Amino acid sequence: MASTAVMEILPVETKCFHAMPPAPRHAISTHLPGWDLMVEFAKRDPAFWAQFHDMYPRFLIHRDVKQVIELIIQRTKLEDASCLPFPSRAVAEACVEWVTPTKRADGLDPVPKDQISIREFETNGPKLCVVIFPLAHLKLVTPYWVNTGTGISSRLAEDLLNNIQSLREGSLGELDNRTDDTPISQALRQRISGLINRAPVGPPRKTEVSPEDVYLYQTGMSAIVYVHNYLTKWRDNPKSKTVMFGFPFHQTVHIFEWWGAGLKFFPLGTELDELEKYLQDEETNGSPVQAVWTEFPSNPLLVSSDLGRLRILADNFHFALVVDDTVGSFCNVDVLPIADIIVTSLTKSFSGYADVMGGSAVLNSEAAKYAEFKTLFDGLYADDLYIRDAEVLLSNSEDYLTRSTTLNNNAAALVDYLHSLTADPTSCISKVFYPTINSTLSNYEAYKRAPTSEFIPGYGCLFSIQFDTLEQTIEFYNHFHVHHGPHLGAHRTLAMPYVRALYGDELEKVKAWGLEQTQIRISVGLESEKVLVETFKHALKKADAIKSAK
Questions:
Q1: How many domains does the chain have?
Q2: Which of 425, 346, 428 is nearest to 392 (CA)?
Q3: Hey, which end of the chain has fewer CB within 10 Å, N or C?
């Protein structure tokens, strides 16, 4: 008689507070197994955060960067001081300008101007500018690093450490760490423009995106920060606000609130009539909206906004339409027909191995405002992406389409399975969120690329599931044996109680927008579909048992 083997699902072996395998020196992931640790993560207690060996480097300064900070403070012989290192003088100055105003936009206390300074250091390798301040003001200065993603990368720090014997203070001036004219940078721009141009939606384009229309940034967050700041200068109207249409990555909202004339937020991504009325009112009041941003689809509920209608509104009200395609990924979706500017976090599935940061902005060369934006970007842009990070982004993305096939297929199979359970009254799953089963599917399909022999597009690696009760949610999460933590688009599956972790103090507020603490966000990895299904079944069995016991 044939026997049916039962797959044993065991907890992952990765140590708590450490990166997922292979856990390289520049890893950007971390593992926080279980619900209780994620709740502690959300509290931002310094004693808890001190335990991390690896972490997303915007959230927690990388250990190589920490060592650079310590060595510079030793070299300056300043007592009770700290510093933050930046790749250029311009970025360091922006930090000082942000933290010193009497009335800071983020509500924190200002750092007295006479207690903060900028100094340049150089080695036989990289150079950097550091913002130096009293150690007591560390909590007042660090938010700039966290929110903008403009600090030096861990690879730049590593190269500084390797040249530390030559560390010396220099005179303030332009630094030469930039990569915009190097073959590596040019190849990376070429790869991105080629992927943007491939398998377009709609009729053939008269003008393709060129590598010169691709702008590289240190992180996905810094791409958002810089593009937003460019656009505040384009409109040249101090009253022109920014609109966020749909629910975005949580820090994006803060950027729009803190820089510029202000933000109008439409969190559902479906309030098109309300948006049109707001645009009309602002224009009538002499404060026309400068830009509308949207994520396609949104994070974490995967809502796909009606981009066609947004394009019509952009033409009628003359604002810039900026689309962040990170979650959909530009191998799957082609938003160029409607976007003036495309912003992408290259850190996610483009890179795919959770070991490097990067971001990009792409100008639509066929957009009516292209000439204006090209002049604007070229006049303000500075490439601060470190050369070694550009090299890793280029190397990692060689198999971008191959990996994306697996990510798409794994996510689609899991969503089909999980969605089928929502009809089962004994199942603890009440909802699944993914482009294929959301009510906004037709909006996604309109911009889904055509299949080719090279690649069949899909719907991305990210989805969310919702449980009937918080107790079931916790039971599932504690027995869901994949890596737990922030990040998406990696080679291994990551789970996170996204709403609880990031909006724990605003649960009632975000509930009105469809976000619940009973939701778990899943970023599917490259594991086998069979293993992933069995892993889900193991955790669901534990959560279902709670329901059946009542």
A1: 3
A2: 346
A3: N
